[in-house]
Amino acid sequence: MDTRLNKYSKQLIIINSIFILFWLTISIFPFIWTLWGSFKVKADFFSRAEWTYALSGFNTLIETGATTTVKAYIESWTEGEFWRASMNTMIVTVSVVSISLFLGTLGAYALSRSTYKYTFYILIAALIFRAMPHITLVSGYLFPFFQLNIWGILPTTIIVLVAINQPFTLWLLYSFFKTVPKELDESALIDGCSYFQAFRYIIMPVMWPGVVTAGLFSMMLAYNDFTVTALLLNQENYTMVPKINAYLGTIEYGGNYMWAVSSVVSATAPLFMIIWFFQRQLISGLTAGAVKG
Amino acid sequence: MPHKTFFWFIFPTGLAMILFIGLPIVSSFFQSLHIETQQVLMEVENCDPFGCQTNVRVDVEATDKLREENPLGRFNGFGTYLDRNHLAFDEIGEAWNISSSMGEFKDIVLNLPFYKALLFTLTFCFAVTPPVIFLGFIVALSINTLAKSIKGLIVFGTILPMIVTPLIGSLVLFWMIDSQGIIGASIQILFDDPNLSLKASSNLTWITLIIYGIWHNTPFAFVVFYAALQTVPQDPIEAAYIDGASRFQRVRYIVIPHLYPVATFIMLICLMDNFRVFEPIIGFSAEGVAQSLSWMIYQDLRNENKMLFGSAGATSMLTILGIAILLTPVLIRTWKEFRTER
Asked: Helix or strand or coil: residue A152?
């Protein structure tokens, strides 16, 4: 492109920089503030008298003898049994990601390679399923799950999350498979491969970027879910997000509120790190998948 | 691909979707036609030296037996849909008769639970979407001009509000705007009013929720716009530049028309996703003044001992109906796109 086109006037650069700084403040500051506040006591983070206490740690100093404290973290992880919640989250996330990728790649490959009309109807059905609010699905699950006595346990939740996740995974992987040239697997078929072999040995090795993106989205769904996990799991099996909500709901302990604050940080930090690491795939996926559905 | 191979490839994912998305909708509908079994009452005669009294009390045994025989409750047809907590046609009719002015009628109707929730859900949807599209576009434009070396970092910062789950995102904001949090306290000082609280009035709570919605959804619009900006053809821009168009004119007459389809797409996705608004209401503890359709369902199901399956089912069906209305344009668009692809 012509370099003159890319030249910006000084004013524009200044206005632009100010705007971006302003925007970043809005999007990042709440998280930094929460991270900072999680090392204080409640009287500082929610200080009625003076909000600068949250910065200086006035009450934290009085209560614990230092301006920062990890008391809330230690208590929530041990007494609050956040370790159990994070373990449950890990089990749910890993299972959901692997199962949905397995089912999703198989289905999306078939959809992208079949030339029959019914593929279209399947994709449309997936689009409709994708639009269903999760809570309406949950209201349909509860009664049968109670009757079958499979309510409250992790495997049920995992399967439900996999299913809820399938429409989006299918659409995303479908648009990725479309970009892989058909000639590749056709030549393998001519050489005597079965469809499954062509899929497994020819197509999958070149599909990793797509699989990583789809995996990221499955991970975000499983990790972040509140609606399904809060209503389908019993208290002991809670994952992190409903657990945080549970800390807020009970007023038994005075320190509980800070448990929630520190747990929010504990739950968000790994997610941010993973997203930081895979940022490029996420953006490319949103573009590829988002434009479709 | 032969039908048989296709079937085996699609079978696992298809089964999962039918079992856990298709069937629950049917099950929801089925539940909505039933209503919880009422307690069986019986009359007991208590006699003491001063005479006999007849009391009505709950026959626990009979109730349990009835519930066990018919766990879903008794068939109620569309009764649940029409009751006071849902479409409430009777109440509306009555309101029409007794109210003297349109305003009064409106007040009565909007105080019925379903219409109250519908009003909030729709307000939220339509108040959040336009600012999201506008802001997302501006942010995408300005980040697009940055040098490549810092882009990655800034894009990461921008998408954070989208990555966290709505519950956590709203909690993080809620703790700041709490009357004892940093923003809440600052606002009190700014207006010199120690009782001012964003939680106090329903209007302020609605505005807070809407601001939260914009905060949460803008990154999505940004990402899609940002990606679409990379596909804007450079030739017409260059030609316009040579013809003397200013930067603003180039954006207004070349870039924006190119992004129209993307903007409609973002709008529809935003409307659809915000129609199920629910977690922010819990995060902001705004149940008192702002209820959404999804929240109504959650409320019916939350109590483990006494779940109102029928009521939840009916609200679910009505929500799905709303989604269907919003979804029609997307479906038509996909249909056309697919036709031209073939």
From this structure: strand
Residues of chain B neighbouring A163 (CB-CB closer than 8 A): 16-17, 19-21
- Co-location of B68 and B215 in the same domain: no
What is the predicted ipTM?
Answer: 0.85
- Do A292 and A173 meet the contact criterion of CB atoms below 8 Å apart? no
Q: What was the pLDDT predicted at B341?
A: 65
Question: Which residues in chain B have their CB less than 8 angstroms from residue A260's CB?
Answer: 171
Candidates A128, A225, A226; nearest CB to B327: A128
Q: Which two tokens stand for residue A260?
A: 């929630």
CA torsion sign for B249, B252, B256, B257 is negative
Q: CATH number of the domain that B173 lies in?
A: 1.10.3720.10
Rounded to whole angstroms, how far apart are CA atoms A206 and A203?
Answer: 6
Would you say B188 and B179 are in contact if contact means Cβ atoms under 8 Å apart? yes
Q: How many CB atoms lie within 10 A of CB B70?
A: 12
Q: What distance, in Å, lies between the first and last C-alpha atoms of chain B?
A: 16
The mean predicted confidence, pLDDT, of chain B is: 83
- B228 and B180 in a single domain? The answer is yes
Distances from the Cα of A75 to the Cα of A44, A256, B70, B196, angstroms: 18, 9, 46, 34
Question: What is the spatial distance between Cα A173 and Cα A183, in angstroms, rounded to a whole number?
Answer: 18
| CB-closest option in B27, B164, B238 to A2 | B238
User: What total number of domains does chain B contain?
Assistant: 2
Are residues B30 and B150 located together in one domain of the fold?
no
Mean pLDDT of A165-175: 87
Beta-sheet pairing, B74-75 with B51-58? unpaired
H or E segment at B51?
A: strand B51-58
Evaluate if pTM is beyond 0.90: no
Query: Which residues, in sequence order, are CB contacts of B298 under 8 Å at separation 6+?
Result: A135, A227, A231, B278, B282
Fold of A76-292: MetI-like fold (1.10.3720)
Whether B303 is in a domain gets the answer: yes
